[in-house]
């Protein structure tokens, strides 16, 4: 069977090669040649091992590649596969201005190489340029791309995972004024040739880009300053490059605006539960080189995938670098993107092959970054540093109602032959040779009967600190009924991992979102069983606090700091202050949930905010009133006299509605930013007021709040009840309680009670609402009680009690009339 390594390519022109070292056959000497028809109109073409064939299409489409294997005995074997071809980047070499690019859809292209090496290697980058006027670079906007695995996982795809088209599509669908504004700029999109390399190494490449842009500006006669936006990891690369130029290089970066877009200044988060799952699967790759399941591929374990990429990893990173800076995995251990240098630098927590958390690389990087600080500009020519965070302004957290990743399936080879002789079971057993499980499967496989494999991989989020719950469970169980009625079970693999202590639950913090299915299209195309039998969640990738560098990397943030609201117009104070001159977080006036937006996404709010910055008219955003508690605006639980509450200048009260107690007050403030509660004359005492009001503005929309508040003195509705009635005996104990009609006052805050109880021993409880008494004198006496709040007292409520016979000689107590209470 022949098939390409990918089945989805962006670009009408591509090259195809059949590497001899991955073409496997049981009878290689019997193969005369291989021919492929790519559906490009040229028919079958004979393919020589390691030869490059150019394949060109005139339009995007789904094409059928047909394969023909000609054998030496004259027999011909056929197969085919489906390949999706999309239009890719339309480029031309930089500097060819003869053809007008009126649609701004042709990108000029040029490569740069860093002048400075990092650990012996010079980074390279490819620039894709959208020249606004086809006249050279005169008004530059440099875009530093983020983490890009294309160099390793998808090297045949030009520009890798991210490119200028994706960036502009994001801008153009933002529903903001940003597309029109960016059309005035010459956009230089910096595409790292190795987007998973050390951040410092790519920063040196960006320095070369800045130097080149400045030369091009000068050649075009432009004195415009550079604007640099760094997306995700690119924000760190840009910060490092600009600061290093100021501190260590002998040229001027000529930049007056640095924009950090959801960059992990404190760290990025890949959930620990998911990393445990990756490691579990990776370890199975290491130990089981044969296919784990036949019939339907669940885990393609034909051979260690690191064998394909080993040479690439070594050539990209160099062999020395794996050891010079710490504990990096070797190429033969490569199976997870979390192991690359930039990943190790950015991840808050990295799980190694032994399921241990090792953060020495991240800690070293964070120390270096915080020591460098931020670009400051030059004397008389400062730089403005601003940030976009995709986390919710309201601090909305991720709820994780389902697993982050859950794959559950029962796999079985149901052919009659496999029921008699378990070829599948024997094959799996051979892949586990040397283990007792392998021996068991081979033994059970030769016995007749039905067999199946129960598979479950489940990675869960960490939601609370030190919860100590299970965050990963993975198991593959072999089950068989020998002779169709004797059940046996063999656990082929099983791992369980609980949440570690003292590790912050980054999965749940508000921040730029990582929605797993949005990044899994290629994987699903290769392994549709994952999509068909799996559920996939969403988690916080870049916490808002990290995107804003709260605490500047020198303050250890705690759980509450990561759960806080971050508001551009009201930034956090020291020591958790942000180093940025201005920042914006996510808010959508048309979405009542105001949840977190996707990582490095543009939208109406941050797009218009960025336009304001680009046009030197900064906007300091604040819609936090929509997620505030009503008590922030009206903190009082009781009003005694006319009281006015003030809102921000740009907030308008559009509705006031009294639902209870309308006779108690007048409320003023409609169509203003102040709300006034004015009590009426309340001769019978006060009462309960319930009302709602709606506030808002043009940018944030509106929000309705509900408030219940007591107006005036306590109501004159008290009465007394007694555990012994109103005729009581001298020397005995009784419980007397003040009661309200319909319990009207008892629920009000700051309510206490005052009593006048003559000739009795008294002990109060329940905020003086109840009195335990022991009468000390015969006679009939008035017992009185009244309620008090911040506005005053109710009228006295009086009840006469008759105290009868004494319990016996010597038990008489005489005391004066006493008044107790507050």
UniProtKB/TrEMBL annotation:
GPI inositol-deacylase PGAP1-like alpha/beta domain residues are 200-287
Q: Which InterPro entries match?
A: AB_hydrolase_fold (IPR029058), PGAP1-ab_dom-like (IPR012908)
Organism domain of life:
Bacteria
Molecular functions (GO terms): hydrolase activity, acting on ester bonds
According to UniProt, the name of this protein is PGAP1-like protein
